[in-house]
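Follow-up to my earlier ticket, as requested here are the two runs.
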Amino acid sequence: MSEPRKLEVLRAIVEDYVHSREPVGSKALVERHHLGVSSATIRNDMAVLEEEGLIAAPHTSAGRIPTDKGYRLFVDRISQVKPLSAAERRAIHSLLEGPDDLDDILERTVRLLSQLTNQVAVVQYPHSNRALVRHVEFVLLAPKQVLVVLIADTGSVGQKVIDAGSDVSNEALMALRARFLGSISGTQLALLSQVLPSVVALCPPELRSLAQVLAHGLETLSDTSREERILMAGTANLARSNVDFPLSIGPVLEALEEQVVMLRLLSDMGDDPRGVTVSIGRENPYDGLAEASVVATGYGSGAKVGILGPTRMDYPTTMAAVRAVARYLSRILGG
């Protein structure tokens, strides 16, 4: 059995199984694919694939299904990630373009990716330990109430209403905004708590008390924005894939609920020359995901976006969707 034909037979089995959910027999392969050999030859080829651990026979069927090893060989032989259609690209563009608010953009991203792939979509918030201050704003809401706004270069926006303790004038806020912005613009959020005391110390004595209160508000916002978080959508798609999790869907749902598990999984996934990394079945370090695959890639400053679903998935289409969405996301966020 030649290597090209082995790969061609494996590809046909993977594609048929993904499409039909049914174990694939030699007769069906001959009927549906132009492999150029007889049914008997295909049976021999399938026997070789089974010996090599690339396909297996479910105990209730004469057909064969891909193993994790078979999916891995199939995915590794995808030399290039196919581009999305023009219609799919337009859909991504129209759904992701909009207000420059990080929460809103990421929520639309996971909904869109879930719809494109019929899987659970997951997006990691940008790594804010590398995020920089882009803008600050102080807005007078009431004589003693000020809205403090901190905007990072990742697009994240933090807001906090603070009590100034005494009446505040718009003129004082404008003066302090200019001073703060001039001093901390471009500063890493992670270093803001170290920089702010010196900014306060350089403020005019009559504004120093207010400056201290505003600095505390900014420091609180920088701490909050550095929390590692993920968003997800499409968990209901797992229920429709219940047949793909014969042992139990429970551990998969538990992994999704445990944000720490998903964050670690996404962070540990390396880079692939094609731009999309695939972790299949038992390759996942978390036992609860032994029947699942994760397809992910980086966007912006290194955060990840991807999908989680059963190992029986349309890998080429899913990889293309994940890569395309990540590229649009990077462009929108200026990463």
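Run two:
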Amino acid sequence: MNATEVVSSPSRNVRSSATDANHFILTFENNRLASELFGQFDQHLKLLEQRLQIEARARGNSVAITGELQATNQARRALDFLYARLQSGGSVEASDVEGAIRMAVAADDQLSLPTLERKAKLSMAQISTRKKTIAARTPTQDAYMRALERSEMVFGVGPAGTGKTYLAVAHAAQLLERGVVDRIVLTRPAVEAGERLGFLPGDMKEKVDPYLRPLYDALYDMIPGDKVERAITAGVIEIAPLAFMRGRTLANAAIILDEAQNTTSMQMKMFLTRLGENGRMIITGDPSQVDLPRGVTSGLVEALNVLKGVEGISVVRFKDTDVVRHPLVGRIVQAYDAKYKVQDESEQSEH
């Protein structure tokens, strides 16, 4: 264990509910890393307190944790994982603490979760490039990252803010650095309903860049900027609208289709059949945010039905609880989902 447990004394809670309580002190060997772990003004410990309803009091390189037995054990696992991350040269931000807490809670909620190792330690899936290491922040992200490792074609579907595209680009960058693939191809429908690029001002690059900006942003997070520019110039990284994929066979490449819910049936079939030898394909999108004209079937929705059970294809479905942006984003997604659910039920009752 990375932290030394100085005191561990299970006891009975004095409250009328009489639930199991626990108190222990964790001491971390490296004072500097312990300070980073606790956060500025102990903000990371405060986050643990808020999320797990425990008390976490720091003193030097030690932290005393008190609370219900299950919650304190979750805090212990989260801190142990985060400290190990610091020891390996990584950093810990508030979002990493949130992720460790989610995974620790999920490990208790789902005992068969593959990320719960013996001795109750967390082992989250990770994606590592020379510039950055990303650890899963939710159980679904963990499943997604593991699916990316084992499957040649992966569908990541669900609401915005769950990390679908970001993790896909990170995985592609990792494959390129490892030499598993020779290039990365990133694409998405250039406009909401049918790529009418001629109506936009500027040359082709100026027309499509605004629609591909999220892919650029993710790339620059994973790979140093100068290397991204050189790779794009050399054709090692290609970022293009979906219309440019027609008639090509993409071998030895990691290919990502983003915003796939806005493809038509024919566009989706065209894209999926571009996969060449030693290719990896990742399709991301949110079926609840289709911007196609009324009556036009989403290629993503159709593909999820048609390809169900096909060997070599993994489908990972994210939920609003997997949103890793500001907590308010998750609540916004839940509110809209509830609204549309009521509308759908109302329309079905009318028919």
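The only thing I checked on run two: Residues 6-19, 111-119 have pLDDT under 50 and may be disordered. Let me know what else you need.
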